[in-house]
Amino acid sequence: MPRAERRTTQRGARLLRNALYTPGMALLGTKTYKNYIAGEWVDAVSGETFESTSPANGEAIGTFPLSGEEDVERAVDAAKAAFDEWRLVPAPKRGEILFRFGQLLADQKEDLAQLMAREMGKVLAEARGDVQEAIDMSFYMGGEGRRLFGQTTPSELRDKFQMSVRMPIGVVGVITPWNFPIAIPSWKMLPALVAGNTIVFKPATDTPTLGERFVELLVEAGLPTGVVNVVHGGGGAVGEALVRHPDVRVISLTGSRETGVAVLKAAAEGLKHVHLELGGKNAIIVLDDADLDLAVDGIVWSAFGTSGQRCTAASRVIVQRGVYAELQGKLVAAAERLRLGAGWEDDTDVGPVINEQALEKIHSYTGIGRDEGAKLLTGGEVASDNGLDRGFYYRPTIFGDVEPDMRIAQEEIFGPTTALIPVDSLDEAIRAANGVKYGLSSSIFTRDVNKAFRAMRDLDTGITYINAGTIGAEVHLPFGGTKDTGNGHREAGQAALDVFTEWKSIYVDYSGRLQKAQIDTD
Ligand code: UN1
Description:
This protein is an alpha/beta fold. It contains 15 helices and 24 strands. It has helices at about 10-20, 70-85, 90-105, 110-120, 125-145, 185-195, 210-220, 235-245, 255-270, 290-305, 320-335, 355-370, 425-435, 450-460, 495-500; strands spanning about 30, 35, 40, 50-55, 60-65, 150-155, 160-170, 170-175, 200, 230, 250-255, 275, 280-285, 315-320, 375-380, 380-385, 395, 395-400, 415-425, 440, 440-445, 465, 480-485, 500-510. Strand 9 (about 200), helix 7 (about 210-220) and strand 10 (about 230) form a beta-alpha-beta unit. The longest helix has 21 residues, at about 125-145. The relative contact order is 0.13. The model is unreliable at about 1-25 (pLDDT under 50).
């Protein structure tokens, strides 16, 4: 681009920034996007909009409709109308659309990853992993089109056949977070679709472009009109209207504990199915007999990967005293080697956090940890050197000598901050690990198989890792947690289908006479 042109308009400047920061990627500029309702791309009824910007450098990415109740109503009507036909499409055919979708994601993996590095901020390797998780889910749930297994059982009566089958429920409201902007929508929408439901999708306002790309590809894969609809906007307007709409029968939300409780209450009157995936305060236990270098690798990856913005992030490290000093030294050194930067730069280890509010919250926990008497070993500050002040960067932060009941060891921070908690024994470690309100993921590093099995039994979480960090769930096992992490449901695996289907038990009596169960059994 010639030099003079560079100064012409603000838009030109943004385009130039895109060109500089996203090598190999088609320029997006600040395109204006729309909702997708009943097969058409439409503005919000109010005409209002909001902007998506990059947490890495503040560049504008897109303008989106700031929707409200009327938009949700239209989308729900479209989804409801489409359900009548979609539920009758043979499940293997529905699955074939998911296979095509998986292939489209695979074809566009690099572009989507580049976009994710810009819009959400995660580093490219992780962004590719996020897209890969959705590809895996597409093929896994596509295959469900030929399974959707139910049970057949013998009858207690002669000449009688019985079975249970999964039935779709209707319109599903999908509310997703920004931290896995492609993977998490796939966890919710693909099982819902293969089971024959229709969808109204509200992507996070921090990652609307990725949400809209997801829907575009679903449409390209061949989903009929109205089966999936996207309504952009905030949780207060769009999310709440979805949760309250009488025709939305299922809500699947990944978000904060507070939002989860509010959704559950709002959905109670309508007796909706509500699936909640909420917070975590995940711990890695390191015992005296552990491979310490392996443990350090696991901790660094789990505490600072995705800038600590995973529900599964390790924000506590519970260490047996025999190795505490050595582990602390190795961990601090490893954390200080991490390079902060934009996610699309090759040598970046840790990208930005999602927005200014998140940055402030994370930094406030550094103050809280200090005030509680924990020892700040490294980090604890906003990074602003070398142009990082254009985005939201926080130094990987480690607190030492943390007591299990301190706030930094109890509350979800959702940033690159972790707390080292010294303990004397496995029992004490498990007590500390379980002594929080959340129960998503846990891990233990030990070479003792007996201790590993005790941890597998006694750690009160939905996911436990042995000799690995707290992150890295695969799509074909259930994902979710105990206690305040959710309300008993699971995503991924076969368990996901339970959220999006009703069981129907069917009895076929071919005896030609009235046979009474429990009575005519002799
Ligand atoms: C999340 O943080 O909400 O196991 C999802 C993991 C990823 C998914 C995390 N596969 O960390």
